[in-house]
Amino acid sequence: MKNGQKEPSGMVLLRGLVRHYPFVLKNFKHYFQNLYRREVLATNVVAPYAAVFYATHRCNLDCTYCTQKEPDVFSQELPTERTVELLRIIRRETDSILFTGGEPTLRDDIEELTRAARQDLKFRSVLMVSNGTLLHKRQMLFANLHGLIVSLDSLAVDSSRPMSKPAVVQRVLDNLALARERMPRPTDITISTVIEEWNIAEVERILEYCGEQGFVFATQSALHEKMPNLRLRQNSRCLATCCLLIT
Questions:
Q1: How many C-beta atoms surround the C-beta of residue 213 within 10 A?
Q2: Model pTM?
């Protein structure tokens, strides 16, 4: 606002483009690169915007909604050297990579893989999804990640189910504090919360926690037989929480 007058929307947009120019430049470059492939080379094979790399399908937890862990999904883990070569091939087509699983920190070489991705292969964006339970054992990760996404579904401890998220809440919170201390900005850390019927009240608490810590908050519905849980649409508390998130 200047002298009570609202700033022109075009100027606001321009300032936003300048402020986020690396991201904007990548989007324009990616668009025209794929336009060239489609129109000039006449191919439907386009460059991916980012790559998702499943480092492992092993996991040390047993979340009810997870569809990407053994024994439901199984994949062979390549040795470190061959994995780096695979990352090198991926780098030819994209500058962004997301390490996920299973639980990536169960791989003994995950620190070496992220180091190679950022320092040797020069990925401009190296992200990792984790349940947060083992970060204290993989502290070299913090120096080589541009972003860390940690799943957290409750702040209330419940030790009755040893392999569940609520059973390890304190360890995850301790590791989030460690990550906040070691990573450049709190906004480099995203808390991802899966909404189920049992944890709707917890979602608001996690949102408040993210606000206090300066973390980014993200949420999504749990899958029911590989589809969103549509029962949540009839849950008044869930609808009220969603309205809170939107506003």
A1: 15
A2: 0.81
